[in-house]
Amino acid sequence: MRKKIGVLFRKTQKTAYTFERLKACKHCHTYHVLWDTHCEECGREYQPIRKLSASVTRRYVQTRFLLMVLFVCLAILCAKSLPQILIAGGVGILLLALFYWMQKKYGSYERDAQFLPFLSQEQDAIKKSLVHHLEEIGADVKAERYKEAYEKIREIGHFIHSDTIKIRKIMFLNHFILRKDMELELETVTPSTYDKDFVEYLREVIKVQPSLVKKSVLDYARRYKAYILLQENGEQLMGQIAGAALRMRPYIDQYQDLIIEFIDFIPRDRFLRLAKLVHTHRHEGWELLYAATKRRVDAQFAFDPDFAGIS
Amino acid sequence: MVSYFLLAAAFVLLAVRFTKLLRLKRRNLSAREIDQHLHALLNEKRERP
Questions:
Q1: What ipTM describes this predicted complex?
Q2: What is the pTM of this model?
């Protein structure tokens, strides 16, 4: 068995949107998604990608503005009399003022709209930078720096949702002793196919943070139940997963079959919650669940004072 | 005459920009849509020849 290490993860930056995590070095034309604030090549400060895109848009607007100024200046220069000069000057100032007002009022919509083609244009450079980060991770793994490797891949995971990234994350996470106070992830590492390491990780996570078990994990457990049962203490794990599903009523409705099937393996405290719930809501489509719960209560907890009056 | 022609050109330029900005305002791209676009770009699978 692999020796696990105790670690304290670096706090990850919380952002509303993923693109806010992208930083760019204007000078080297590279991107960065980790925690560094300055470019490792040139030492210049990274800039948010949105700022970079906004500066491209600003340049575009400036050229349009200068074109208008040129037209107005030429109009003044081509004027043949004083009234024409005054008209050209007055109309020109009015047009430039309108341009400025329009830009102030609607410029933000243009910045957003230009950001989209900017991202498409920078797609290859962003991908190249992510690959560079993955190479760094490879070096970290070789040097057995699993904590750094995980922290890096966690950041990359915000951008790439492939199974390869998820499985690598799980591989790193399985090197650590998991604790309640850790910022763990489960939904974001759930692969689309069966993975033994993920099941091993799930077993550990469910012990410390059962609240992380959500729909995607329950679906995974239902889909790969046969494989999980082949694992050592597979039934106990399925019982724990079913116990975690008791956290929310919609989950109980949706995963009733799973709960009934593994009801005998649900830990006592979770089973007590289930017993209380089915006792209160027995006539709301939970008849089968009620019958299964009653059977276990009668068989195992008939003399348990906590279960008194429930069945 | 040339002077008025140049002013008209400046006005057309302004009108074109106004139409463009108005169209972008109607489209009103949200940050969520931008984010989805980024995810689609980075996670798209290129078909091998």
A1: 0.84
A2: 0.80
